[in-house]
Amino acid sequence: MLFLAPMLVVLSVVAVFPVVYSFWISLFDLRLTRPRSVPFVWFDNYAQVFADPLFWTSVARTATFTVMAVAAIMVIATLMALLLNEEFRGRRILSAVLLVPWAIPYVADGLMWKWIYDSGYGALNGLLYQLDFIDKYMVWLGDTRKTLALIANAFVWKEVPLATILLLVTMKSIPADLYGAAKVDGANVWQRFVHVTLPALRPGFMLVMIYETMMAVRHFDLFFILTEGGPANASHVLAWDVYVETFRKLSFGTGAALAYLIALITFLLAFSIIRTMGKKL
Questions:
Q1: How many CB atoms lie within 10 A of CB 47?
Q2: Please, what is the angle between helix 53-84 and helix 147-172, to 10°?
Q3: 43-278 domain in CATH 1.10.3720.10?
Q4: Are 152 and 234 in contact (CB under 8 A)?
Q5: Which of 66, 93, 154, 163 has its CA 20 to 30 A from that of 237?
Q6: pLDDT digits (tens, 9 = 90+) for 20-51
Q7: Euclidean distance between CA atoms 68 and 278, whole angstroms
Q8: Where do the domains of the chain lie?
Q9: Can you name the residues that pair with 159 across neighbouring β-strands?
Q10: How far is CA 91 from its chain centroid?
């Protein structure tokens, strides 16, 4: 415990104290527009959040974004892990290239995709126009029906490498004897994948699903850089709601309550995934 004490002190200062203090702030009507008057309101901030229709709209958009992003990450990462698990020329180069998106900071990632989606000189418009898929340049991020999917695409591009690595490590731990026994029993490639690979990948699937779900629910960077919650609140998710409430409306009490609700949602989702998938391990 003596050797662990410095780490515990650091964690208490940078992690535990802010969490406890933010909950304490959520019990006050703290507004920077009137900093001298900070009444204690108990759970009125939470009641105010639940009564706001925009909050429930943000929950629905966050759920849509999370489902789209996590589902795409799981499928693409599984396929990439299966590919990198095979022996072929250039596998090491491909593995190195795969890490590039993961190494790029989210701010740079958001700016890159903002340029790609640009309606005037974006690479996406240029490519689709050259291939005759569109007859004129389109305003991608200005379409409320496409905004969440486009942001999810940028999020998936950034998160797939880590998910691939986690699944590949899990895949490498599968005993080769299982595949040998399956071949002896006459199982083809698809049957070996379904009955040997997929069951053995459940720990990796659980880890990736928990991590990526938490990242998607509380994600803010791409929404800030690409759309700032627009157009017409089409990308107004929970994380953006926290930012608007706290730093634009300067209502720190309500913002802290929203942040705590996000933390509670991510905890419940992680707990549900562990309970559901953990029983099968």
A1: 12
A2: 40
A3: yes
A4: no
A5: 163
A6: 999 999 999 988 888 888 898 889 999 999 99
A7: 23
A8: 43-278
A9: none
A10: 27
